Amino acid sequence: MSDYQMFEVQVSQVEPLTEQVKRFTLVATDGKPLPAFTGGSHIIVQMSDGDNQYSNAYSLLSSPHDTSCYQIAVRLEENSRGGSRFLHQQVKVGDRLTISTPNNLFALIPSARKHLFIAGGIGITPFLSHMAELQHSDVDWQLHYCSRNPESCAFRDELVQHPQAEKVHLHHSSTGTRLELARLLADIEPGTHVYTCGPEALIEAVRSEAARLDIAADTLHFEQFAIEDKTGDAFTLVLARSGKEFVVPEEMTICRLLKIIKPRKWNVYVVKGYAEPAKQQYWKVKLTIGINILAMKSVPASKVC
After folding, report:
1. 8 A C-beta contact, residue 73 and residue 61
2. CB half-sphere exposure, 71, CA atoms < 13 A
3. Could you give the count of Cα atoms lying within 13 Å of 35 in the half-sphere of its Cβ?
4. pLDDT tens sequence across 143-196
5. Does one domain contain both 246 and 271?
6. Is there a domain that residue 107 lies in?
7. Into how many domains does the chain fold?
8. Residue ranges of the FAD-binding FR-type domain (predicted)?
């Protein structure tokens, strides 16, 4: 996993998109261009609220062709442990945030003849930068965006007015325009790569239908923006620099344990992924005290935070 370089940015705009989603525009504190990125990239946003520290990953939704700012969209989670609630309730224009340089684990496949994007809810965000990146490309693409209703459909107006709006398909379950996934995947053209981002139910539906249709696994790409709030088997966590060992019990997570033992200035960066062929979801975890790496390993997603 790539190292993240952290730096400060200033919040230049906060815009409500729906009742639960806000868009944040971030600019460099010195007015210079921000580091370059590619479609599908994310940044880590570091936040501090008293003794509580949060490090959340957010997809960049702005155009890779314009690095005068970064834009992220944050959904206020109902059971937020702090990150989304902090951004929604405390961050305002003029505030400074610490963020990472961009990293991309959901990039477009250069050899693809066509890109098929399937988004659910806030999972639309990485596809906005993908679409901007493809604006001057000859490679075909198509977006299918699923939401409960038009009111909860973030970026709806922008998508309807997109220069290539004929490639954008909005699906609202409340209006009877639910995505017909089986038909969509059955009709994909040779050389098409399928990218899915959204809740677990959507990802598993795409996986299941693709397997039924015998679609090649290496043409399927997934990014998940939330995990189920549960724990897993106990294991031992070793702090590499001090050599101290701590048992993370079944009912505990790494983040909760670190809050209890409180090592000096700790941070946790989490990167999402899937382990093949068992389809067990794993997140790579990088633990740091200051800039010193404590540990790096793959652990089940449910044991992270």
Report:
1. yes
2. 24
3. 17
4. 999 999 999 999 999 999 999 999 999 999 888 889 999 999 999 999 999 999
5. yes
6. no
7. 3
8. 4-109
Structure tokens at 119: 């988004």
User: Residues near 159 by Cβ (< 8 Å), separated by ≥ 6?
Assistant: 143, 145, 165, 168, 170
User: What is the span of the domain harbouring residue 122?
Assistant: 114-224
- Interval 251-279: pLDDT, tens: 666 666 666 666 655 555 554 444 333 34
Residue 124 lies in a domain: yes
Which of the listed residues 100, 122, 157 is the one where a domain comes to its end?
A: 100
Is residue 193 situated within a structural domain? yes
Residue 215, beta-bridge partner list: none
List beta partners, residue 74.
22
Please tell me the predicted confidence (pLDDT) of residue 49.
82
| Buried b / exposed e along 31-62 (16+ C-beta atoms within 10 A) | eeebeebebbbbbbbbbeeeeebbbbbbbbbb
**186 CB neighbour count, 10 Å cutoff:** 12
pTM above 0.85, yes or no: no
Indicate whether 127 and 219 sit together in one domain.
yes
Kindly provide the residue ranges of all beta strands, DSSP E only, lying in the chain, ordered along the sequence.
Answer: 6-16, 21-28, 42-49, 52-59, 70-75, 96-100, 114-120, 140-147, 168-172, 192-198, 220-224, 235-238, 245-248, 266-275, 280-289, 292-300
- Cα–Cα distance measured from residue 146 to residue 142, given in angstroms and rounded to the nearest whole number: 13
CB-CB neighbours of 29 under 10 Å: 10
Domain termination site, one of 224, 255, 287: 224
Q: Is residue 229 part of a domain?
A: no
Asked if 214 and 133 sit in the same domain, the reply is yes
Query: Where do runs of H (alpha helix) occur along 139-296?
Result: 156-160, 181-186, 200-212, 254-261
